[in-house]
Write the structure tokens for this entry.
Amino acid sequence: MDKAQQFKQECIDFYSEINLDSLLDRTADKICDYLGCEEASIFLYDSIKEELYFEIATGEKKEELKKIVLKKGEGLVGWVVDHNESVIVNDCSKDPRFTAVTDKKTKFVTSSLLAVPVKRDQKFLGVLEAVNKIDGVFSSDDHQLMESIASFLSIPLQNAMLFKKVMIETREKERLIELGKTISHSFDLDEAFKTLKDIITEIIDPLEINVMVKSQDKTHQLIPDKKIPYQETGVDETTISANRAVFPLRTKNKTLGFLELKTRKKIPEEVVSLIKGIAIFTAISIEKFELYLQMLEREKIERELQIARKIQQSFLPGEEICIKGMEVACANISSSAVGGDYYDVIELSKNETVFTIDDISGHGIPASLPMSIFSANFRYRIKKDKNILITINHLNNLLAETTDLGQYVTSFTCFVDPVKMKIGYINAGHHPPFLYRGDRLLELSEGETVLGLFPDIQRRIVKQDLKKNDLLVLFTDGIIEAESPGHEQFSKERFKDFFERNKHLDVNVIKEKLIQELKQYVNSDYFEDDVTFIIIKITG
């Protein structure tokens, strides 16, 4: 068996390796073994920037090598990409293409070198490099073996690079969700701008961050922190130069302003799409803020809102809920005439009851329509499907198709069987409910992301055993974020402490005491956010 066949047999599991660093580490070690060389390096090629960068290198200097970037055509490796062919040099000191850039930076001596391109479907992925043959010189057999290794590596390398790209894009979406949640839960522009500033400063190192808002006729300078008169940018599309980038803040109907970033160097291509997403969410924030101000000026719609409130309340179950094997108490106190919280209690069978508690992003009118869509469809689907997983997957796809960008629902839905003493739940980005069992406190936190942002998310039902006298508390964030006159939040710690003091009481007594304690804490009968909770005691 020749070496090429032996390499393929030994490394067949490379095809299942999706971790890029692990794949390249193993490949570099194999090159050293099979080629009999001192060191091995692997460059990856950026076709947009036309640059090669060390992704993996063996030896003591590998960390220093990772800092080096070569242009297409620079050095022997750059020559390989530029000419689309391999190269063998057994005396680098006599080859004019050898620049010794890496040797000077790492104080390493390269005497001989074999470099081979890695391509897939005529697309350059990178270059494999064997450095300093230990015995003799690099031969044509070495060249043929190295090309076989490169050909074999092309598929797993492409797969691993694509997987890494997907993981980076996933992290970017998570950052956008973070910003979207802040924006959707508040009409406070300063809060949204603070989150925007924090995220951008983590991504790049800006000299200035300016948010220009047309309707306010002012520019919010987040770095440095001040406000100045609005200034037109003179552009309608995203514009990026060496030290300045401008992103329009645009909704479906109009341009509300601009996000301007001033930097020391050009913004990298890989973060431009993320900043465009940030600009979209910022535009949504400004638009919602403007709608909120308009709503405050329209006192005449108060009567219509009260009617809407009655309709919305009709979606919720009644105050008295009687279920065999359980004691149940519920409450929903909206911060405005119409709210964005929803809960329901539905008996599916003699022993199985479904509970759901949901928080639609935003407050008032912007949240009321998705809430109505959600509640009506939830009741219909759960009775039709009799399966919480099918129902939640359907609602996720429905919301993703019908609601505005950035609008979503956090949801906790479960079925409880007090006979089998079982609970099965789906947590979609919602605050974990509390499960009190004697002196123990469990938080039901396992789950996936929110509903409505991304269709076809894979979700699962998490199951948990129950015991007699277990106390289950489902709630929305309006409780823990309720603020005192001194702007201190009620907090999850105070909420837990309340139940530690009162968990032995009847659930309806707990309900009334909790509402009273919250009102005393905020020193008002009015809450800034919807307050919704369900308390369930398992009686067996």
